[in-house]
Amino acid sequence: MGYGIERDEALALVKDHIKNENLVNHSLAAEAVLRAIAKRLDEDVEKWGLTGLLHDLDAELEPDLATHTTRTVTVLQDKGVDAEIIEAIRLHNLEAYPGEARTTRLHHALAAGETITGLVIASALVRPEKQLSFVKAKSVRKRYKEKAFARGANREIIAECELIDIPLADFCELSLVAMQEIADQIGL
Q1: Cβ contacts of 61 within 8 Å, gap of 6 or more
Q2: 64: Cβ–Cβ under 8 A, 6 or more apart, which residues?
Q3: Model confidence at 2, in pLDDT bands (50, 70, 90)?
Q4: pLDDT tens, residue by residue, 26-59
Q5: Which end of the chain is more exposed for a tag (fewer CB within 10 A), N or C?
Q6: pTM (2 d.p.)
């Protein structure tokens, strides 16, 4: 199926628009998590992976949440990227679109999936080894309950996993395993 962009082109686009290595790694982690969610839900793994990979293209140019995703939408529309991918990316940041809501499985999956990556990474970075391979899903679930830990990982958004019928405990494990599988690519 065509999505208006191939994976290698999407990755090049990410690296062209994002210079901060941590943000590139976040995009790769979001891709891995979205692919795992799609697989579990029997959805389109390639489409969902591309959505995760491309979701933060304008994170450096539009760091203000009031405008974040607006440039990404324009860039992806100009490239002819699949409208469903663009819509999910647009709505992963509702602050830029007051009054709108996430309504589809892909919308909720992207919002929850990209948000949990920060919690998983923080869970690895507080360990002496600073490696994902040493993190257990139980630790991620414990950290989820600690409101002061990784404050940027909005728990309400992560909890949207429940809206796509993935219990939080399963979601923590699925996300951790997906990120562990690409740990070498994201330096963890």
Answers
A1: 17, 71
A2: none
A3: confident
A4: 999 999 999 999 999 999 999 999 999 999 999 9
A5: N
A6: 0.97
d(CA 122, CA 29): 13
CA-angle at 6, arms to 74 and 52, nearest 5°: 65
Contacts of 167 (CB under 8 A, 6+ apart): 161
**Which residue ranges form the domains of the chain, and what is each CATH number?**
7-180 (1.10.3210)
Contacts 24+ apart (CB under 8 A), 180-183: 180/132, 180/133, 180/135, 181/32, 182/28, 182/29, 182/32, 183/131, 183/132, 183/133
pLDDT tens per residue across span 89-102: 999 999 999 999 99
Q: Tokens 């391979």 — which residue?
A: 133
Distance CA(167)–CA(22), nearest Å, equals 28
